[in-house]
Amino acid sequence: MQDMQTVETIQELQQMLADLRMEGKMVGLVPTMGALHAGHASLVQRSVAENGATVVSVFVNPTQFNDASDLEKYPRTLDADRHLLEHYGADIVFVPSVSEMYPEPDTRRFSYPPIDTVMEGKFRPGHFNGVCQIVSKLFDAVQPDRAYFGEKDFQQLAVVREMVRRMEYPIEIVGCPIVREAVGLAMSSRNTRLSVDQRQNALKISQTLFESRTFAATHTVDETRRFVEDSIAAAPGLRLEYFELVDGDTLQSINNWDDTHYAVGCITVFCGDVRLIDNVKYSF
Ligand code: PAF
Questions:
Q1: Which CA distances in Å does 107 have to 103, 110, 116, 133?
Q2: Distance of alpha carbon 150 from its chain centroid, rounded?
Q3: Cys bridge to 116: 16, 128, 247, 275, which one at CB 3.0-4.6 A?
Q4: Contact, 198 vs 237, CB < 8 A?
Q5: Which residues of the chain register pLDDT less than 50?
Q6: How far apart are CA 195 and CA 205, in angstroms?
Q7: The pLDDT value given to residue 252
Q8: What is the spatial distance between Cα 200 and Cα 240, in angstroms, rounded to a whole number?
């Protein structure tokens, strides 16, 4: 396929995909909610490198927002998104309407405790159910060979992997590393909502996580948790929602570094009314 195509309906999308499959192309899917940035670009680049065709969905999914004002304030920048996607070589941009994805209310319930009940699951009830609703609909519509998700949403990636395992989707889930600004801030569509001062304050989040890695090498799990909690509490303009040190596979809290071969620190912080998440891996 030459030029990037924008499609709005599942029927149109599936016609195009049928043609691509006839040409023997593997299909990669990058699900997004738009307001694209370098983090999304890295997913698209990876998919373009690994598949004959790349579909990027741009859809602000209402069922995963448990806060109506968060949904309303979510940035929508379709023209800029299309430019970025064209630049990185996406083949199809799928931009469905809400009624296209939800012709009737989705009453399916996805529940994968304990992976989806801790951290984001605790603070954003229903969020992962909404994520699974839309991701499964996108998987059904696109039937990709591979699907690409960022590790910034570390728990989302674990929940999607679990859904794929339980529902036996023949799809390879590819987790891609967090992309950071030069100053360390994890790329997020929500960063555009930060004022200049808030942005400055937000830098303390990744700084603290990086410092905690050095601290952890000579301190216990509890001491490391307190180190992060105290640094964020002392930082101007930030309010910690949670910081958890967990096993990277099960997402369950650890008490000792020996409890896991793969410790991850997951944090959520409010910077004004902007909710930011980040995480860091610990290796000793
Ligand atoms: O990570 C996101 O942007 C969304 O949760 C996703 C996976 C596109 C589902 O709406």
A1: 12, 10, 18, 9
A2: 5
A3: 128
A4: yes
A5: none
A6: 16
A7: 97
A8: 16
What pLDDT sits at residue 1?
Answer: 53
Spatial strand order in the sheet of 238-247: 238-247, 263-271, 274-282
pLDDT of residue 283: 87
Q: Please, are residues 152 and 178 in contact by the beta-carbon 8 Å criterion?
A: yes
Contact 61 CB / ligand 1 (< 6 Å): yes
Q: Is pTM beyond 0.90 here?
A: yes
Residue nearest to atom 9 of ligand 1 (CA): 131
In this structure, what token pair is assigned to residue 204?
């303390």
Residues 6+ apart with CB under 8 A from 113: none
The conformation of residue 1, written as its DSSP 8-state character, comes to -
Task: Tell me phi and psi for residue 26, to 5 degrees.
Answer: -80, 150
What is the DSSP secondary-structure string of 33-77? Answer: -S---HHHHHHHHHHHHH-SEEEEEE---GGG-SSHHHHHHS---
Residue 157 near residue 151, CB atoms below 8 Å: yes
Question: What is the C-alpha separation between 179 and 185, in angstroms, rounded?
Answer: 9
| C-alpha 59 – ligand 1 centre gap (Å) | 8
Domains of the chain, start order: 5-176 (3.40.50.620), 189-278 (3.30.1300.10)
Ligand 1 nearest atom to the CA of residue 57, by list position? 8
